[in-house]
């Protein structure tokens, strides 16, 4: 770890390295990413990716951690050659995460399909209290986390690989039922239990065997309830509830599709 810290200090801007020193979890995430050998991506390319991630966050409002992004990027970089599915992101806000994922899909020659209303969170009556850690969960009002399509395209054009992206604009209930393409990996950041249900119902059946789904909303009790609901999985998704890593314990939860 000491050697990798020295490498990061040498190659990263001082402001980014100082941030990592103040945030041990972020530093450990970066070092874990550099140590990972599940992909054929070079060490130099990994360093370049880390630097780009922090640059993007400095330019675009991004309500996620770099550790969460690196977990998904690690999955993208490790996609099997025989897999031909697209990568899907549901909920992109201002496009910070989209720009980051687009850099990864460009390295492996994939496409990134982005679902968003581009009007913010829909009208809802989901009560919010505390998250699973005891912190106030906040209120998700209509229009919150809005990034217009034009704004997102501009941000991804400046900081990512726009040619790797396809944007599907509209409410999930309207757009996802018609989507039928095979999917290799999914990243969900939609805040609402109702939106999570829609994503799982229409996207999970398209996920290839061995594919991975992440949800960044695992800290929200109503979302935890959706993932925990055996009847929902059987009756609406069409399969038994899978093993969900981190459910009820972490914000970023993970499913590896077994069949």
Summarize the structure.
By secondary structure, the protein is an alpha/beta fold. The chain has eleven helices and seven strands.
Name of the CATH first level: Alpha Beta
Percent of residues in β-strands? 5-15%
| Helix amount | 40-55%
Within CATH, the superfamily carries the name Vaccinia Virus protein VP39
Please tell me what the overall shape is: globular
Low-confidence stretches: none
Domain tally = 1
Largest β sheet strand count, sense and barrel closure: 7 strands, mixed
Write down how many β-strands occur, each being a DSSP E stretch of 2 or more residues.
Answer: 7
Strand order of the largest sheet: 3-2-1-4-5-7-6
Q: How far is the first residue's CA from the last residue's CA?
A: 37 Å
* H/E element order: HHHHHEHEHEHEHEHHEE
CATH topology: Rossmann fold
Mean pLDDT: 93
Explain the layout of strands and helices.
Layout: H1 2-11, H2 14-22, H3 24-35, H4 43-59, H5 66-77, E1 86-90, H6 96-108, E2 112-116, H7 149-159, E3 165-169, H8 172-175, E4 183-188, H9 193-203, E5 207-215, H10 221-228, H11 230-237, E6 244-245, E7 253-256
Parallel strand pairs: 1-2, 1-4, 2-3, 4-5
Antiparallel strand pairs: 5-7, 6-7
Description:
The structure is a single chain. The chain has 259 residues and is an alpha/beta fold. It has one domain (64-256): Vaccinia Virus protein VP39 (Rossmann fold), CATH 3.40.50. Helix content is 44%, strand content 14%. The protein has a seven-stranded mixed sheet with strand order 3-2-1-4-5-7-6, with helices on both faces. Strand 6 and strand 7 form a beta hairpin. Helix 6 (96-108) crosses helix 7 and helix 9 packs across helix 11 (230-237). The longest helix has 17 residues, at 43-59. The radius of gyration is 18 Å and the shape is globular. The model has no long low-confidence stretch (mean pLDDT 93).
